[in-house]
């Protein structure tokens, strides 16, 4: 499921390939049960250009200084693809396509249909209305400790809570705690200031590491948990055994041999 670095990689593709081109039309694929802009909502975008792209947490914003904007949420398996009509094949599962003048196209590909596109006046008010916490790449040390440290929730659940901190999901919360040496079910309010600072530092390092590869997981170092997410796999850090357990309703992969605390 796409998290902050995956959303950022998609935003970069739009910034590089689909900005400053006049929108001539929109094309819709098979969109039953999907939340996408209506014809009336699409109309104000015709003849305009995407001149700015932004991202907050897992949300991607495409628009212009004066607005309006479209917000894309990738859901479980969505992605944004830039392609050229005639030269490239249309991506499969293309649900919503920006048709630019000339051959350039931008398609929202969404095989499992959990993603969506909405219209908003501006990204700031969307973030506020959705009650999202600060972006996980932007938040400072003190704000991180304040927002997560007081919680009785398991540290993994606190990291996943988009209202505390926006952008971290199942995969990268596990990777963060694996590197921090903390069990996923340690209550957040049981962590010392130094432990919370370490969680923040490792979360940033994980997100930065994934961003550096543009979310191509094969390019991540071999000792990352992502390459060993299997019950019974060997832990590349300590030789222990990777184990899974359910924390806050989510499957958490971890190594009980070098991750401490919890029950
Ligand atoms: Zn280990």
From TrEMBL:
A Pfam family reported for this protein in Swiss-Prot or TrEMBL: H2TH
PANTHER family: FORMAMIDOPYRIMIDINE-DNA GLYCOSYLASE (PTHR22993)
Name by which UniProt lists this protein: Formamidopyrimidine-DNA glycosylase
Any one GO BP annotation for this protein: base-excision repair
Family: Belongs to the FPG family.
Keywords tagged on the record: DNA damage, DNA repair, DNA-binding, Glycosidase, Hydrolase, Lyase, Metal-binding, Multifunctional enzyme, Zinc, Zinc-finger
TM spans (from-to): none
InterPro entries referenced in this protein's UniProt entry, alphabetically: FPG_cat, FPG_N, H2TH_FPG, Ribosomal_uS13-like_H2TH, Znf_DNA_glyclase/AP_lyase
Alphabetized Gene3D superfamilies for the sequence: 1.10.8.50, MutM-like, N-terminal (3.20.190.10)
GO molecular function, one term: DNA-(apurinic or apyrimidinic site) endonuclease activity
Annotated source species: Wenxinia saemankumensis
